[in-house]
Design brief:
Elements (H helix, E strand, L loop, with lengths): L15 H10 L11 H13 L5 E5 L2 H10 L6 E6 L3 H4 L4 H6 L2 E5 L8 H4 L13 E8 L10 H13 L3 E5 L3 H8 L3 H4 L7 E5 L9 E5 L8 H7 L8 H11 L3 H21 L5 E2 L7 E5 L2 H10 L3 E4 L4 E5 L6 H16 L1
Parallel strand pairs: 2-3, 2-4, 4-5, 5-6
Antiparallel strand pairs: 1-7, 6-7, 8-9, 9-11, 10-11
């Protein structure tokens, strides 16, 4: 157990309001599998938050959300275009390929972001019967590199996808952090830019478990409930996901939590950036910071703080802040870095 972790926003526990909501939901009896009044109400609240004319579902995990978003929109002969650094390509153990039988087509990017210019050359062989057919562009907002798509960039990608008979999926495990960083609504960042399906994460931002899928093309995702059951993402006691989301939405807790995490990452970047021996490799937009540290510092720091090496060849590390990261945690980390540099 670490007193301070910069390893992942998954390392934090629950926000107290979410814990209270779970306790309140843990009384009496109600129907299972999402037929309870609380789940139906909160799903409607989420649909309203994303601008209406959409359909929402609860799932248990972020990987499950990505699988179901993609599976509901394509066949096994299709292909998904994604960044090489994307979660579906690197960190989901081939789950998308296993469940969809479709192919991932990863593209190398300098910053984790796809662009029409990067994608266009891949489309030259499309429609040939010997090739998997490109159907979905899948992006993460924010990206695994902590970078952000602007609203204009999102709109351009959606327009490009639709022009080429494709669909746009947004992995929103950190969608809250992105919305706060861009100072925009969830509707503006998803429905208004032309996204077809998105996920809205809670696990990394103060919830115990649970993600929401929002489809802006319900005519294409009518079979989602069957895919969800097959993928073991239909949680029987659904009210415990709904209760968390109810607390998450109340008073914009999702914004408050994301803002705290983002602000702490910005503070950490500022303090580390003042040290000549350390290089910040990506501009810090959300709650992720990437930096090149002197190699002798990494192991001693990891004895006290949990964090991961992103690129071992460059000694580039990833430092993540969470909703409960505090300024004194930053002070403690910086003091230790300075001590090690002096040594």
């Amino acid at each position: 157990m670490y007193n301070i972790s910069f390893g992942s926003d998954n390392h934090s526990g629950m926000h107290a309001k979410v814990m209270d909501a779970l306790a309140q939901a843990n009384t009496g009896y109600c129907p299972a599998y999402g037929d309870d009044p609380l789940t139906l109400k909160v799903l409607q609240d989420i649909e309203t938050l994303f601008g209406g004319d959409c359909e929402a579902w609860f799932v248990i995990t972020g990987t499950g959300a990505n699988i179901l978003c993609l599976q509901s929109l394509m066949h096994s002969f299709h292909a998904v275009i994604c960044a090489a650094t994307s979660h579906i390509n690197v960190d989901e153990c081939g789950a998308v390929q296993k469940f969809t039988q479709a192919r991932l087509n990863p593209i190398e990017t300098p910053d984790g972001k796809l662009t029409p210019a990067l994608i266009a050359p891949r489309l030259l062989g499309d429609r040939d019967q010997h090739h998997s057919q490109f159907k979905i562009i899948s992006i993460s907002q924010s990206t695994e590199y902590g970078t952000l798509y602007t609203l204009a960039e999102l709109s351009d990608l959606a327009d490009f996808a639709h022009k080429h008979n494709m669909l746009l999926h947004i992995d929103g495990a950190r969608l809250a952090n992105a919305a706060v960083a861009l100072n925009c609504t969830l509707k503006e960042m998803t429905k208004d830019i032309g996204a077809d399906i998105v996920s809205f994460g809670g696990t990394k931002n103060g919830m115990l478990f649970g993600e929401a899928i929002i489809s802006f093309r319900p005519e294409l995702t009518a079979d989602m409930r069957f895919y969800r059951k097959q993928a073991s993402q239909l949680f029987s006691k659904m009210r415990f996901i709904a209760a968390q989301f109810e607390a998450y939405l109340a008073g914009d807790l999702w914004k408050t939590n994301a803002l705290q995490a983002n602000n702490m990452a910005a503070l950490l970047a500022k303090r580390l950036g003042e040290l000549p021996a350390i290089t910040i490799t990506q501009e810090v937009f959300v709650n992720a910071l990437f930096a090149i540290l002197p190699e002798p510092l990494i192991a001693p720091l990891q004895e006290k703080y949990l964090f991961y090496t992103w690129d071992e060849a460059r000694y580039e590390v990833r430092l993540m802040c969470s909703f409960n990261t505090q300024e004194e945690h930053i002070d403690d980390f910086i003091a230790t870095v300075k001590q090690l540099l002096k040594a």
